[in-house]
Design a protein that fits this description.
This is TlpA family protein disulfide reductase. With 160 residues, the protein is an alpha/beta fold. It contains six helices and seven strands, in the order αββαβαβαβαββα.
Length: 160
């Protein structure tokens, strides 16, 4: 069973890595519309998909905040996309404030972007290069994953 799951993740990962992200617009926690084009980074864009009910998501956000502090002035933009549904979306703003998320928090209340990218787990983090190609995909979070995330940012931010 584990082997089947790993094979499935491998093929999903290949499919996502071959994807190019299309411009999208979502409301932020202040009810302002923000587009991907407005928020994307000069070199890379890191998008973190999360929900308020996902414990690994809540554990990953402080680590992503630390990574943001290290890379946001190096051409790497960060976008947080909350995917809570209508019943729990009201928690997204207060939760993002309590977690001190320092980068834009967008609300994907009907899972439009999540569905377009065929995401199936939370948290999911993707890295997109300057050409709009998804170059790295990561599901879940355990302590230590932040080292892999930083290694991937270093790897892809140095690509020409």
């Amino acid at each position: 069973m584990k082997l089947i799951y790993l094979a499935l993740l491998f093929f999903i990962g290949i499919e996502l890595q071959a994807q190019t992200i299309k411009n999208f617009s979502l409301k932020d926690t202040q009810n302002n519309t923000k587009s991907y084009e407005d928020l994307k980074g000069e070199k890379l864009t890191v998008i973190d998909f999360w929900t308020t009910w996902c414990k690994p998501c809540l554990k990953s956000i402080p680590a992503i905040n630390t990574i943001y502090e290290q890379y946001h002035d190096k051409g790497v933009s960060f976008i947080s996309i909350n995917c809570d549904g209508p019943r729990s979306i009201a928690k997204a703003g207060p939760m993002s404030q309590s977690l001190k998320i320092q980068y834009p928090v967008l609300l994907d209340i009907d899972s439009t972007i999540k569905t377009q990218l065929n995401l199936s787990a939370f948290p999911t983090l993707i890295i997109i290069n300057a050409k709009g190609k998804i170059v790295w995909f990561h599901e879940g979070f355990v302590p230590g994953d932040e080292k892999e995330i930083m290694a991937q940012i270093e790897k892809y931010s140095n690509e020409k």
